[in-house]
Design brief:
The complex is a heterodimer.
Chain A (H helix, E strand, L loop, with lengths): L2 E6 L7 H14 L4 E5 L7 H4 L10 H5 L5 H4 L1 E2 L6 E4 L12 H11 L5 E5 L6 H8 L3 E6 L3 H16 L5 E8 L1 H5 L6 H8 L2 E7 L2 H9 L10 H13 L13 H14 L1
Parallel strand pairs in A: 1-5, 1-6, 2-4, 2-5, 6-7, 7-8
Antiparallel strand pairs in A: 3-4
Chain B lengths: L6 E6 L2 E7 L6 H12 L3 H4 L3 E7 L5 H15 L3 E6 L18 E4 L8 E4 L2 E5 L7 E4 L3 E7 L2 E4 L8 E7 L3 E4 L2 E3 L10 E6 L2 E6 L8
Parallel strand pairs in B: 2-3, 3-4, 5-7, 6-8, 7-9, 8-10, 9-11, 10-12
Antiparallel strand pairs in B: 1-2, 11-14, 12-13, 14-15
Helix pairs in contact in B: 1-3
The chains are: A alpha/beta, B mainly beta.
Chain lengths: 265, 212
């Protein structure tokens, strides 16, 4: 059964768009038909992360206002045939779309796709309302920071009151060392504050910045920790049980042993 | 607010009607002065008439009534003075009295930041109250979980209202307008906060000893 999932957070800059691009790509790599929708009208970024900004001709607004067919607005991914991007307009704003239009759109998309990922903008205003209007479930992105956790709590409350009770949280940008030293909120703290289910943990990884700038989602690169984390999350979305990633850096443990050896002398 | 505006003056068939919100006045002297100030200029017009004094939300004490009456007879020379309690709904910010038995709202999931409950009665939350959530209840507040947000009990003035939680760690709480914050640290047992002598006291909740 097709599923529409909104990716939201409340706070800006926590990694909603990056997560959308990566989970979408990972789900498509697993062989599912996926469409990712950019909900951030006026401040679109998803196209850049997917490396598709040059291919945009028609947008969500053109479809809603009858200037094109839905098929024309959908952009096929460069790498994966099952993956599509539905971009939004950069020259309009979030009030130009309403919730009913989104519901109509998602019903239409469900005929052709297995997974519909909606990248919600930051905030809890019209853009958020539009993004969650037709969502079956929600993924909340949270950074291990008090501000992000507080906003996530607010958003989960909003989702609850809209009847979206199926929500899970992804903890993004976790710095293993800092949580070990007690300098950053750890996973248990966050889950206790939010009392929600955990979908996955994505470590802080500099490769993300590189892949963002290249327009290639990190899941397409081999052997990065963050990429593996996103692939695992995608697998969990499909119902597969995957254990949480061990974030303890392994290779440094050998060096630290050597380091300790020398320190003793 | 100017003293003159604190008293509403209306004429009706029976005579002059003064409507007074007692909460606006700190003492009976202040009230008497205000009434005198209000009626003195129109003394000639009303003398010999009957006057009805309507007070809300509470009645005047007997001795207060006599003093007000005396002033009215002496200075304005009215024919008679009658007292009545207001029964107009809009005049009555009634104090919710059902803290032992009464209207209650049950919330069966955790309240998250930004959620607000306002209720003319008791509120019971089965779940946690997260930071940023607010409860305004005219009666008691009972949280079967951790209270981290704000809880205001007895908002219409019932001083017998209480706040109880399995973990009572509110960012702010009040009972009938008296405020308190929780101390640092997390209690390992349920607690009850109540108002005694103008201060909020927090006591451990020990089932066999719990009496209110």
């Amino acid at each position: 059964m097709p599923e529409s999932i909104v990716i939201t957070s409340g706070k800006g800059g926590v990694g909603k768009t990056t997560t959308t691009a990566n989970i979408g790509t990972a789900l498509a790599q697993l062989g599912h038909k996926v469409v990712v929708i950019d909900g951030d009208t006026g401040l679109r970024n998803l196209d850049v992360l997917m490396g598709l900004e040059n291919r945009i001709v028609y947008t969500l607004l053109d479809y809603f206002e009858g200037r094109c067919k839905l098929k024309q607005a959908l952009i096929k991914d460069k790498r994966l045939p099952h993956l599509c991007l539905l971009p939004t307009a950069q020259t309009r704003d979030k009030n130009d779309i309403n919730a009913d239009q989104m519901i109509g759109l998602i019903t239409e998309l469900k005929k052709d796709f297995d997974y519909i990922l909606i990248d919600s903008p930051a905030g809890i205003e019209q853009g958020f309302e539009n993004s969650v209007a037709a969502a079956d479930s929600a993924i909340i992105i949270v950074n291990p920071e008090v501000t992000s956790v507080r906003d996530a709590d607010r958003v989960i409350g909003k989702l609850d009151s809209k009847g979206i009770e199926d929500h899970k949280v992804i903890i993004n940008r976790l710095n293993y060392e800092m949580t070990e030293n007690g300098e950053m909120l750890n996973v248990e703290d966050i889950l206790e504050i939010l009392s929600v289910k955990l979908l996955g943990i994505v470590p802080d990884d500099r490769n993300i910045t590189i892949s963002t700038n290249k327009g290639e989602p990190i899941v397409t690169a081999e052997g990065t920790l963050a990429g593996t984390a996103f692939i695992n999350i995608a697998k969990r979305i499909t119902g597969e049980e995957v254990p949480l990633l061990n974030l303890k850096p392994e290779e440094t443990s050998i060096f630290s042993k050597i380091g300790k050896f020398f320190k003793k002398k | 607010m100017n003293n003159l505006d604190k008293i509403q003056m209306k004429g009706n068939r029976k005579g002059l009607n003064l409507i007074v919100n007692l909460l606006e006045f700190n003492s009976i002297d202040e009230l008497i002065d205000a009434v005198r100030e209000k009626l003195e200029p129109v003394k000639g017009f009303y003398s010999g008439n009957a006057v009805f004094v309507t007070t809300y939300p509470i009645r005047l004490q007997e001795d207060e009534k006599t003093r007000l009456e005396k002033m009215l007879y002496d200075t304005i020379a009215l024919s008679s003075v009658h007292y009545e309690e207001s029964n107009r709904k809009e005049d009555l910010p009634q104090v919710f009295s059902g803290v032992e038995e009464g209207h209650t709202k049950f919330v069966t999931k955790s309240m998250r930041g930004g959620q607000l409950i306002e209720f003319k009665g008791n509120v019971v939350v089965i779940g946690d109250v997260h930071i940023g959530a607010e409860i305004f209840a005219e009666g008691n507040i009972v949280i079967l979980g951790q209270l981290k947000g704000r809880a205001f009990a007895g908002t219409s003035g019932n001083e017998k209202a209480f706040v109880a939680a399995l973990k009572l760690t509110p960012s702010l709480m009040s009972i009938a307008g008296t405020f308190a914050r929780s101390q640092d640290g997390e209690p390992s047992f349920p607690e009850v906060a109540k108002l005694q002598g103008g201060n909020i006291y927090v006591e451990p909740y020990i089932p066999s000893k719990f009496e209110y």
